[in-house]
Amino acid sequence: MKGKVIFLILLLLGAYAYVNGYISPDDVRSAVNDLTGKENGDATSTLTPSEIPGNVSVSTVNGSTYVRLDVPAVNENLTGLLYRVAVERNATRVDAYYLGEPVLRLTKTNGSYTFEDIRTPEFRIRTDLALFDVNVFDVDVTNETAAVSLEYLADGGSFWNDYFKMAFAVLENAPWVEEVRITYIGERNATFSISSENLLHAWEGKLTAEELANAVREDST
Question: Where are the domains of the chain?
Answer without folding.
Answer: 25-117, 121-219
